[in-house]
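I am still getting used to backbone structure tokens and would like to learn alongside you. Would you supply a protein for us yourself, any chain you care to pick? Start from the sequence, derive the backbone structure tokens from it, and show both lines together. Go ahead whenever you are ready, and we will take it from there.
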Amino acid sequence: MTSKKLEFPKGFFWGAASASYQVEGNITNTDWAKAGRDGKVPVSDSGPDHYNRYEEDFDLAKLLGHNSHRLSVEWSRIEPEEGKFDQNEIEHYRKVLQALSDRGITPFVTIWHFTLPQWLADKGGIESGEFTKYFARYAKFVVCSLHEYCHRWATMNEPGVVASMGWVTGEWVPFKKNKFITLLFVINNLIKAHVEAYKAIKSCDLVTEVGVVHQNVYFHSNGNIFNKCIARIFNKFGNHYFLDRIKNNLDSIGLNYYMDCFFGKRKEVLEKTDMGWGIYPEGICHLLVGLKKYEKPIFVSEAGIADEADTKRGKYIKDLVYWMHKAVECGVPLKGYMYWSLTDNYEWAEGYKKRFGLIAIDYETKKRTIRNSAYEYKKICEDNALIIENK
């Protein structure tokens, strides 16, 4: 048996990701918290209690060989009332970022990850004509307050998912189904919000890197010409509409990848995750190559699977890393990978049922247990390479 070492560029970032509402616990002043109280989505309670246990979680990340970590700050904590910013919460996030630095872990911070403060939701949320103003003000305040502790920012997470789940399927806040005209307005409002936030941040700190985190789906098809055209249309509008309109106000791109979408009759049968999503790691290579045209540094900011039994995760990570390396060989300026997620967490409309974490959480005791797949990923992180065994 021989082995092959697929090395990644020097300085590559390896780590995992999380988001404030999903892991911190006890966030009550948001549109999602209200939806939970109203019985429209599962209630988010103390959850993993990362707000109080972040040092323990970062110790585990360090143990697992991570040199980077993606997190978000919670808008409702920082601006609990319109125009009133809580310096105590800013100090909390300073401590969080310092804790990462103390462990040699580089932070990547997302300024807004889905949840809105209740005061803003009451004003219409993203549909509000003033959303852009509020968002740019908040983004500038966060970066001006924390720029000494973090130099890599994303304005928002998955704007297309926010829009489609909230205004097409109606499964997420604000639960509006098949509102396609409103959907276009919402997406364009988010585009304006990113651009204005980018400019506002640069007025505060010109040297920091400001990007966006975008979820892309790999749309492909069989040989039927009609199916090929449909796949191209979905790729153009689903994966690139937003990015094409912000490309001049963008320093880097975060790619979130979870699934592919095949048009036509598919020959192979895909293994499924606990979310019911087909496992297709090859798709990430095609998406990364598709992002190459923007000539920006690219990070895989999320990619992971729900796998409570932990029987598929290790292989999935290795396969995903293999296809990321293929993208690097194609000249893609890929700079890092953050597995979703570091710990089990609140998975939006699914609540705490689905287990994505490298680290399992006992929600009763808050005990952390490292899954076996996390050690498989640890070897990749520490080697900065994937070792392939050839028979």
The chain has one domain: 2-390. The first strand starts at residue 2 and ends at 7. Residues 180-204 form the longest helix (25 residues). The mean pLDDT is 97.
